[in-house]
Amino acid sequence: MRYCGYCFLQIKYGGKSVRLNKQSLLHLLILLIILPIPIVLVVVLVVYRNKQKQLTVKMNRLMEDLEMDIRNDIRQGFIDLQTEKADLMENVGAIPFLDYKHFASRIFFPENDSLITLCIKDIGQDVEKVELEEHCQIFSKLIQDQVFLTTMVHALEEQKSFTIKDKCTFASLLTVALHSNLSYLTEVMEVLLKDLMQQNSSAQPKLLLRRTESTVEKLLTNWVSVCLYGFLRESVGQHLFLLVSALTQQISKGPVDCVTEKALYTLSEDWLLWQAQDFSPLKLKALFAVGSDGEVSEPLEVDALSCDTVEQLKEKILNTFKTKFGFPYNTAVRDVYIEYEKEGSFTPLQEVDAGSEVIGEVTKLNTLRHYKVRNPH
User: Which residue ranges does UniProt annotate as crossing the membrane (predicted)?
Assistant: First the structure.
């Protein structure tokens, strides 16, 4: 065997010898390089499968824990609903039905108290007979002409200065004027609806009747409300009121943003409060000042949250007062002044004061946690 410029390699072991030339050495080197690759792949595959099994087991455990938490929450929620149902029925009292005149007036003019006052006597079965002036009588006869009335509606809606609010007010005034002749109002509404469908057939038909942006849409709203009054009062009114009361009660059990009005416990995704701070329930006792001699009323138990602002606490106090006694408190929320009594000292509660937290240019509203309000012992 040569050491410099060798031509072959002879290996002896025992009584045997193997002779390797340069080409055999190259094959052996390649074999030594390739041989560990399958071993490494097998090891990697085994490790990967073990990790995958561990991850699967961990995910299954997490899913089981999550499902168990959801089951517990559902059970607890069902128990709470069963116990709260009796409280709800007990606290609701009499259903505050409106008479027909006030119901119709609020539907027709939801934001105009002056028009409600002027037109309320023209609504209902016991309409007061008022002698109209001559020009009013002439106009009353004109609107009984279907061609004139539909033409007037179209002419007004073509005016750019005729806003959506004006259209709604005009439709409500028409409803009041034609309230005693609903069959004629129905015919006019059918004609206007056909015209509206023809206008929107090539534009956006899916948006038709979804928004009250025309006179006929407000007419339809008023017409449906008038026709449903008896059904609401005699059949579903009580159930709807209990549903709204239960939803309001459930929403008030979680944080509600006093600025955006988004809530943690809501049925609408658009109004869901995604980032809610920690909170704890509070049972407070509210005392109302009686007279000017420092006398106070019996304590009123109010459910609140540690994250409630001062204004939200005022609203909950007044709502609890109305629920318990059946009539509203004689002071508006903005005029109510409240103090927190702790160990004989009184602290005024305000939305913003000298101790309010300031972040940059934003001032945070004070909450009950800010004033360290706790459950009474």
Answer: 25-48
